[in-house]
Amino acid sequence: RELALTKGGLLKGKLRQRAWLRLVGIQQDEADDSSVRVKLDRCEYQIRRLERKVDKSKSKVRNKVASKAADKAALDNMRKLESKERDLIRRDVGRSVIFRFRVSGDLSTVDNSSMSNESDNTPSGQSSKGESNSVAPVYASDLLAQVLESVISSPLNPGKDGKIHYYQGLHDIAAVILHNMDYDTQKSTQIMRRICQSHLRDALRENFGNVSWLLSILLMPLVEKIDANVHYALAVCDMDLSNLCLPWMITWFTHDIHNHAVAVRLIDAFIAGHPMLPFYVSVAILTHPVLKREILSVGESEDTGMMFITIKALTKSIVSDETVEGDSNVTAQEIIEDAISIMHRVPPRSLLTLAGADTADRKVVLEKAA
């Protein structure tokens, strides 16, 4: 856990494949996954695809023979409810960050020897033939869909009637995990299930009410406490940080950060850290000495649109820990360390004191937001 929060994180793909399982509380015997099991998983996935086609055909037949309009409506609603999330997953996996790894370059700065069966003496990011190990398999989208469908079919709380509600952006987290787990669907599914039951729990409910409340109430007061100048620049631009930072929170920044080394470095920290760490990372990005310059500059013009664009682009300025240090470079480790420092300064249990008793009522905030 300490290694995941220090410079470079877990460093290698092989270490991540072992450490991520342990960090989410899965023992090695639980995650035992032979090549035979992988093949079985793929066969089971193909079987489920065929079963869905058969069910769809049966559903059409049932609709045709339904004698009452009420029965037909009930069948339609049931079919839509069951297929809506799967259809959304199918559309999302094609746009996933996983396909960016087919373009060489993103993984060249990190050791991904686990992505190949070649010798450990192979240069980082390359196979023994000199080819990049950043290439995703042609069936990557099917494997990603398999992982996500398995995850949403699990209860939010084991043993309780709590359903996981898929949302757009979850596929980006799953894609980075699947890629680093060497496309092992069983282990990737186990990790995602544990994360969904803990760190991403609130985001996977019927709506983002809990996450929106957190951002609406606590983000600006914390920014003000850490850097009053940044808070003023945001305030004069009438910036709604809750809507802007919500995608950061629910995707663990993987949708906005296209540099794999940075994305996987943050996931190291988020899996090992407190569930509130992404919230503190958001504040660390907004108040970082280098990144905040753009915010302060735009604040002088009081241009809300430009401020929105500026903040959205901040994550693109974050580089991997291996990048040579310079005045204009902001490494992922700097952001993580700043976030942890802010968390120590204002721990999660003290956050509500920043908002004040008159504004900390969740019901009032949600009514105002509506």
Describe this structure in words.
- The chain has helices spanning 13-23, 35-65, 69-93, 140-152, 170-180, 185-197, 209-226, 228-236, 241-251, 260-272, 277-287, 292-299, 304-313, 332-345, 351-355, 362-369; strands spanning 318-319, 330-331.
- It has 370 residues and is an all-alpha fold.
- The model is unreliable at 102-133 (pLDDT under 50).
- The protein contains 16 helices and 2 strands.
Rough outline:
globular
- The H/E string reads HHHHHHHHHHHHHEEHHH
Spatial gap, N to C terminus:
40 Å
Average pLDDT confidence is: 75
Describe the biggest sheet?
Answer: 2 strands, parallel
Let me know the number of strands.
2
Q: Radius of gyration, Cα only, in angstroms?
A: 22 Å
Low-confidence stretches: 102-133
Structural class: mainly alpha
Number of helices: 16
Strand content: under 5%
In spatial order, strands of the major sheet run 1-2
Level of helix content? 55-70%
